[in-house]
Amino acid sequence: MFGTISAEHVQQFDGQLDGLDVNGLCMACACCSTLIVSNNMLPYLVRHYECRTSVFDTMSVEQACSTLSYNDDQPAVIKYIIYENNDNETLFEGDNCILFRSRIEYGKPRQWLENNVVDTVVEAVRKEEVRERNGTNWFFPCITYESYKEVSSFKVYYDDHVQKFAVTSDLEACEKIYIPIHHYGRRHFLLAVLKVPNQTCLWFDPMWSDEGYSLTDEEILPVLLEGLDNCVPGIKTKPFFPTFEEVIQKNAPRQPNGWDCGIYVMNFLRDLPDDNGKQSGKIVVNVTERDHEKFSQALRIECLLWVLFHEANKKRDGLLLEAKRLQNKLMDSDNNSDEKEARG
Questions:
Q1: Do 29 and 36 contact (CB within 8 A), yes or no?
Q2: Whose CA, among 22, 108, 209, 260, lies 20 to 30 Å from 191?
Q3: Which residue numbers delimit the Ubiquitin-like protease family profile domain (predicted)?
């Protein structure tokens, strides 16, 4: 995730890391992404000494992962991701998408997420949906807007990607369709929620404001709805989707910066609102600009851990086994070093 760390890195910091274990977890400088070391801490935004600031803060694994059932396996997996350097290793494998170690770098501070990172969450929540509600809600993989702004292109997207997610063809039984959208030109992720029975398109836009500003506009929705009319089986009367009314979800959590829209969309999918628009609040929360500087990276790491430990991940057991193997290796190395030091 952040690469291999050595003892030399610790010497770059003005005495702030004295006494911390070099085998601890890594942190990345918010300015230049230089790696530093912290003992039993999760990576998040940190200021680097050589960037002429010495702001240094810490957050325990328990704090950052408070929404998970905390156990010792989580820091072990994070440490494994940091220490090993096989970029081609598959960390997540679902029925329809995979995530290589090399793509985990997008969990670093201020980094832009890729579509396939969002798709791992889509696959996980889709698996839960099929198990708990037999697929009454559909989850599409992430769409890059520029790739389907022509209806004909949308048909290619649907044939190549959506059908692989094994969406049921029974449109009459469908309640909602969740479609994450990446507007590459605007560098923004947002989510379309199509409420089929009442024919409404609900937009979750993390950049929406009380003044009505939103990155959703008239160019996206018509192509999306017309494309669905041409692709989704089971439509008896057309036009169907193009008649949907557009609504902005105003009470949804909003990102307080310019780079976390993707993680907010992913967490929104994990904490879907009820019919009254209310969420459980266990994952997605509104935070202030000041708070988010501290918790931005923790949000990303928490989501990554959730995906890696999810039942949808076929690599979960093997990943945990390798993580424990590395943990034991590091412990043995530490013990041998202590014995040598004791013998003088």
A1: yes
A2: 108
A3: 81-272
Say whether the peptide bond before residue 239 is cis (omega within 30 degrees of 0): yes
Strand 176-183 and strand 143-144: pairing?
parallel
Measure the N-to-C terminal CA separation of the chain; round to a whole number of Å.
37
- Summarised one tens digit per residue, pLDDT across range 228-260 is 888 887 788 889 999 998 887 777 777 777 788
Query: Is pLDDT above 90 for 312?
Result: yes
- Tell me 60's DSSP state: B
Q: Count the Cβ atoms, other than its own, within 10 Å of residue 282.
A: 12
Nearest to 48 by CA among 34, 59, 38, 37: 34
Segment holding 299, helix H or strand E: helix 289-308
Q: By three-state DSSP, how is residue 76 classified?
A: helix
CB half-sphere exposure, 54, CA atoms < 13 A: 6
Q: Which domains does the chain have, with CATH numbers?
A: 7-84+314-343 (no CATH), 114-287 (3.40.395.10)
Residue 212: pLDDT band by 50, 70, 90 thresholds? low
What is the distance between the alpha carbons of residues 249 and 269, in angstroms, rounded to a whole number?
A: 14
Place of tokens 């810490």: 58
Please list the residues that pair with 25 across neighbouring strands.
Answer: 38
- pLDDT over 50 at 17, yes or no: no
* Lookup: tokens for 274: 């009820």
Measured CA to CA, the distance from residue 251 to residue 204 in angstroms comes to 9
Judging by DSSP bridges, how do beta strands 245-248 and 188-195 pair with one another? unpaired
